[in-house]
Amino acid sequence: KSKKFGLLIAISYLLYYPVHATIIADFHSVSLATTFILWAWYGLEKKKYVLTTCMMLLAWFTKENVPLVTAGMGFYFFFKGDRRYGGALFVVSGLWFLTVYKVIMPFFRGGEHFAESYYSSNILVNLQRLFSEGSFTYLYALLYPLLFIPLLAPQFLLLIAPEWMIILLSSNTNMRALQYHYTALLTPFIFIALIYGLKKIKSKRVLLSLLCMVLFVQVTT
Fold it and tell me: Taking the model in full, what pTM does it have?
């Protein structure tokens, strides 16, 4: 409830390198989902369900795995107390993902999703990829510009666990390169976690200092 801090967070969002990279990289429709998801979250917070539904539909049509992200949103708001809309969002998101991935795409493609070749069913291989140096470097690069403050509200990062797994378990290392569009579905939740993480800091002086440091780090890196 502070316009000053809200403005600083908005500036930080505009300075965030993955946002720039998503826009500058070859156009992919999922780049639009970042904005749609942020508006959908705002609609859920304010119980503006028409806005949320419109934004959710737009987001779904940007990429087939977006419903996995919105299912996480539904899960969160269901347990936050918005059981009717949150529960419906969780169920419908899951059904839409299965319909797109298992019915629509195979029908038009004439076979399995091309990206399935990126993944292994071997548990040891998956653990090796998940805990590799490349994975930790990727996470560091995402969170360092925000001074790791989103880790103060890890529940919002866990809501997109399927998206983290899609990226971290892939044999395609481009998916863990910040100069592409693969962060488009992570960015909204990283900043939601940033906001809720900052809410835990009660001192306005400390808050202002942290946000100024975030802006300094982003400008200089």
Answer: 0.94
